[in-house]
Amino acid sequence: MLKRIIFCLIISLSFSNCKSSKRAKNKSASSKIVIKKNTDKATAYTKPNSEHIIIPKTKETPRSKAEHIIAYAKQFKGVRYKWGGTTKSGMDCSGLVYESFKTQNIALPRISRDMAKKGKKIPLKKVTQGDLLFFKTGNRRNSINHVGLIIAIKNNSIEFIHATSSKGVITSSLNEKYWHKAFYEARRIL
User: Fold this and answer.
1) Residues 48/49/52/58 CA torsion (nearest 10 deg)
2) Choosing from 8, 52, 68, 93, which is the catalytic residue?
3) Partners of residue 147 on adjacent β-strands
């Protein structure tokens, strides 16, 4: 008789466990999906019970070639410096510009001093987004050895994205003393 009671008790516990787990599955019909944005911040969206996911559009898509080039270059912000690098595992200044223009089928030389021979030289007061800034930095002030891509002009401040050996891919202002002193020329490729 005791065996029969234990057997019935085990069976009833087994069935009650199955029912509670099925209820739990039905109650949690929605699941989380994590989508990574360009800003490197993850945002969680809840998937509705249907198959379709509606993701709100947060930024307008770039329209001009310059905007496409800038948007591509900005993806590398924070990437470490690597001489000769052209990927997210490491990037140098000319690699950043070379790869960004390449996305719009614009072939540039791979080295900054050779890039400075392309396009048209323009005065600083006429620069716009997508133009290139060339510099003579450090011990090599007799030749161009650095390039940056203009991403914005705000309140007479020219902002550019570039890769530095100390901080990797960053944005800087031409108003910063170091970059202002090292500036050599601006060129328009587009």
Assistant:
1) 0
2) 93
3) 134
Q: Which range has the worst mean pLDDT, 24-33, 79-88, 108-117?
A: 24-33
* Cα gap 119→94, rounded to integer Å: 15
79 contacts: CB under 8 Å, gap ≥ 6: 88, 89, 90, 91, 163, 168, 169
What gap in Å lies between CA 142 and CA 144, rounded to an integer? 7
Residue 35, pLDDT above cutoff 70: no
Side-chain-facing half-sphere of 169: CA atoms under 13 Å: 27
The pLDDT value recorded for residue 142 is: 82
pLDDT on residue 158: 97
Buried b (16+ CB within 10 A) or exposed e, 70-87: bbbbbebeebebbeebbe
52 is catalytic: no
- Judge whether 8 counts as a catalytic residue: no
C-alpha–C-alpha distance, residues 30 and 33, integer Å: 10
Catalytic residue from among 8, 52, 68, 162: 162
Nearest Cα neighbor of 137 from 181, 81, 85 is 181
Q: What is d(CA 141, CA 61) in angstroms, rounded to the nearest whole number?
A: 39
* Beta strand pairing call for 86-87 and 183-188: unpaired
pLDDT at residue 22 greater than cutoff 50: no
- Known catalytic membership, residue 162: yes
